[in-house]
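Running log. JK asked me to keep both predictions on one page so they can be read side by side. First protein, sequence followed by its tokens:
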Amino acid sequence: MTDNAIEITNLSKTYADGKTALNSVDLAIPAGSIFGLLGPNGAGKSTMINILAGLVNKTSGQVRIWGFDQDVNPRQSRAAIGVMPQELNIDPFFTPRAALDVQAGLYGVPKSARRTDEILELIGLSDKAEAYARTLSGGMRRRLLLGKALVHHPQVLVLDEPTAGVDIELRQMLWTNVRKLNEQGMTIILTTHYLEEAEAMCDEIAIINHGEVVVRDRTSALLGRLDAKTLVLRLENPVPALVLPGNVTQEQRRDGQIALTYRRSQVSAGQLLAAVAQSGGVVTDVTSEEPDLEDVFLSLTSGKAA
């Protein structure tokens, strides 16, 4: 086992209709991390996940999961990964307990090594263990999908849009469980359209667009890529004309505050405040607004989605 849970080298996938979903992708995901895989619809995220899960055959390239090459050791590589899919693909006539036991059997987990009760408790379905899946709410079914992904003790867990369409309570429960699993050493790969979740949860993020990785970096470093910052000022009295350094944009907001957007590489907050004072402005309150992950995402993918 290396330092990486996943190693993808020169991975490509072209479908029979000629569409290229992935184009020579190289990506390494560190073991023990929570890793975000983001991109617009049609960017190639689902194809990559399905290749990792062994559900789609790649056209070319190499995939190693927990040190096992998919082509050389397909059984071991598949056993090292669990996937919580977007779709609610659950047999309606199985109880949660039966669904977990069947899934464990499919992975060859002996009865003595199964953790059905432990998983039911983790996903909050102990009291529904014997209820038919068709009677479960949508949120409970999504919890059951997480349980099914965990039955074979995977080292890597993929969460494909896990909180799409769920309520706040379920979302919080899911992230609590994900953090707990990660603290126990499990590597988590997350795809999501909720960028604030990726920003809060992920150690590192890769953004895929048009079948290629356009950027991969630590979350904090990605946010630092945007040079723009905004100071929001409340002045004691209106100032007819602020004399500001070049390349600073000024916006008068409806609440009476003034927003000054500038580039940190060109001017400092101190210089801005000094310029306001020299223009006769008396600042009574000041706040700053930093760029968020959505700004980074849009700046990298705007106009390029497949």
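And the second, directly underneath as requested:
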Amino acid sequence: MADITVRGAGIFGLSIACICARRGAKVQVIDPFGPGAGSSGGLVGALAPHVPENWNAKKQFQFESLLMAQDFWRDVEHAGGVSPGYGRTGRLQPINDDRVLDLARQRESTAAQLWRTDAGQQAEWRICAAEEFGGWAPPSATGLVIHDTLSARMHPRRACAALVAALKAQGVTVGEDGTDQGQVVHATGHAGLLDLNQTLGKTVGKTIGNGVKGQAALLRHDAGEVPQLYADSLHIIPHADGTVAIGSTSEREFENGAETDAQLDDILARARAAVPILQGAELIERWAGVRPRARSRAPMLGPWPGRSRHFIANGGFKIGFGMAPKVAEVMADLLLDQIDAIPAGFRVEDNL
């Protein structure tokens, strides 16, 4: 008999299963579509923080999770022998006018206060010359860029494969079917949010969450160990395997969440304009998927109201991979030790 059944083999489900198994629980993972079949099987992998201002519980949770990520992914790779492509390589953003420069200076100061722990300063948000990064920097009208050292990158599919390998090393396999045993965690992404709308939403007359379509592309270009870029509202992520991911759209209305269209062509054109070195890079893959967005816009964690021993971990939206290490620890604390450390705004009832 399993102590924990995890339904859903996306980033939240696999990460929770991995931490629970590492702590000694008997775990089974069930997903009829296989690991990383939904939005967790995307291309981008931008682990980027919110700006260091107007601080709140969500930003603090994400900050702590991003700091945990290096050890989390190192342990996953060590356990299963598969690299997730993780690297805390930082991020560059252009400073195109005086208004953005003034904001950047304010955030440089607030990051010194907010991006720190009891151990001291953990990351920087600094203003520097674009020329420091050679040809790998977004065009900047002022010649200056924001360089934050908290952002990291990893390859979503490789990360899911690394988690599956780590689970297998702990005796846990991902099955397509199975019977609920023990406590049950529902980490079922967009489909799970639609189910919650039917079961919980209609009771309170609200939508618990919805899906937001995203489109992304993968180019063949080995940029090396350089920072990711955020320019013209695009994430441009150099991966460790000699590719560069470009993303993404945020589409609230769509007919087919798995099909790419002309919006992706626009993204590619803008990315190549922002980073001319990508002009001749081969297009390897086009991708589209639907990301789960909870009503509160924060991950939705905790007991399923009215269903004993059933729990929800959903709504990662664009920051699921960045939140996953902390989400996994918090859910494992709740499931195994009955320690409730879920912050305000992240609870299931916050979406009701």
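Observation for JK regarding the second prediction: The chain has a mean pLDDT of 95.
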